[in-house]
Amino acid sequence: MSKSITCISCPLGCHISIDKKRDEEIFKGNECKKGEEYAIQEINNPMRTLTTTVKIDNGDVKLLPVRSKKEMPKDMIIRGIIELSKIKVKAPIKCGDLIFKNILETGIDIIASRNIEIK
User: Fold this and answer.
1) What string of DSSP letters covers 20-70?
2) Are 9 and 38 contacting, i.e. CB atoms less than 8 angstroms apart?
3) Rounded Cα gap, residues 24 and 96, in angstroms
């Protein structure tokens, strides 16, 4: 099995190829140790920051941008977005406010990405 990825751990953006032979993974193209660590993570359990919007009541805008406080498993992102589509928050909101605690029982909180004033 062979796979190619672009590392996003540092500004170099190395193109890393991963070849799996039996139980060994061989990495080529990474300029630093971070690249290898990123590639291992990306192959075994890719993680992403969840970003979406939630409805807001009485705000100066109709939608509040939110994000996960830390990365979560990539395969849970869509389920997280669906869960967040069911909620509505009330203005005012400050950037960094807790919007949803422990999304999908991951231990990861969802926070506001901007201030929203009352309409």
Assistant:
1) EETTEEEEES-SSHHHHHHHHHHHHS-EE--EEEEEEESBSSSEEEEEESS
2) yes
3) 42
Would you call 83 helix, strand, or coil by DSSP?
helix
* Residue 1, pLDDT above cutoff 80: no
* Global pTM value: 0.85
Instruction: Give the Cα separation of 105 and 19 in Å (integer).
Output: 34
With 0-12 CB in 10 A as exposed, 13-18 as middle and 19+ as buried, what is 73? middle
Domains of the chain from N-terminus onward: 2-44 (no CATH), 51-112 (3.10.530.10)
The pLDDT confidence band at residue 57, using thresholds 50, 70 and 90, is: very high
Alpha-carbon gap, residue 87 to 99, rounded angstroms: 9
Q: What is the rounded distance in angstroms from the CA atom of residue 71 to the CA atom of residue 49?
A: 4
